[in-house]
């Protein structure tokens, strides 16, 4: 995984919106994705190219249509490497606090 490409792709709010739209309805065409975006078709296409280079989406041609699909694997890898380790400590503290509070309430 190329972390720099993933983080660069995620840094833009327009690209995050595109990922959200694909999460809601995977397999959309460029035209469908453009409908709710406040940008020109060419800009949406450029954002999709960046997402594809970061491996956050993949495309499949069906006849004249090109469908876009979200690829959650790079996001999971970012979570595993950068987020999960911070979550574990916090969850452990909450668990210990819960145990302590439950012990005092008995």
Describe this protein's structure.
With about 110 residues, the chain is mainly α. The chain has one domain (about 5-105): Arc Repressor Mutant, subunit A (Orthogonal Bundle), CATH 1.10.10.10. Helix content is about 70%, strand content about 10%. It has five helices and two strands; from the N terminus they run H-H-H-H-E-E-H. It has helices at about 5-10, 15-25, 30-35, 40-55, 75-105, and strands at about 55-60, 65-70. Strands 1-2 form a two-stranded antiparallel sheet. Strand 1 (about 55-60) and strand 2 (about 65-70) form a beta hairpin. Helix 1 runs antiparallel to helix 4. It is elongated. The chain starts with a helix and ends with a helix. The mean pLDDT is about 90. It comes from Marinibaculum pumilum. This is ArsR/SmtB family transcription factor.
List the helices and strands and how they pair.
Blueprint: H1 3-10, H2 13-24, H3 30-35, H4 41-53, E1 57-62, E2 65-70, H5 73-105
Antiparallel strand pairs: 1-2
What would the keywords be for this entry?
elongated; 5 helices; ArsR/SmtB family transcription factor; 106 residues; Arc Repressor Mutant, subunit A; two-stranded antiparallel sheet; mainly alpha
């Amino acid at each position: 995984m190329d972390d720099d490409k993933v983080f660069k792709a995620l840094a833009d709010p327009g690209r995050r919106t595109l990922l959200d739209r694909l999460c809601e309805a995977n397999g959309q065409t460029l035209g469908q994705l453009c409908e709710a975006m406040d940008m020109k078709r060419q800009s949406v296409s450029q954002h999709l190219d960046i997402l594809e280079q970061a491996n956050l989406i993949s495309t499949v041609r069906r006849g004249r249509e090109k469908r876009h699909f979200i690829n959650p694997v790079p996001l999971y890898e970012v979570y595993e490497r950068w987020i999960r380790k911070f979550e574990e400590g916090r969850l452990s503290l909450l668990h210990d606090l819960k145990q302590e509070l439950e012990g005092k309430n008995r």
